[in-house]
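Write out the 3D structure for:
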Amino acid sequence: MLLEKWKGTDESMKMRLRGTLHNEDESEVTEVTTVEVEVPDFEAFTGSDTFGEVFDQYEQTALEARNGVMKAVTEKYLNELAKKNTVRDRGTSRESH
């Protein structure tokens, strides 16, 4: 498989994806989440017979990294939401029915 051929070699390069949440005024709501993965470099595309397999490895790795960033940012979003709801709940009294 070509994946093993280029991973961790001179035929690989790094892809770095970053994600964060910002307010309208561009102030950060969460810390930056960064995912870095190895992808085949341009030399791994040795010809038309390998293009599909190499590109598939590139695409799969990129999609997994994107999904990782989205999962981490969403977790941070939900944690911040939970904090806001907890603070809001403390300020309200609940009536028992």
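Strands lie at 12-19, 33-40.
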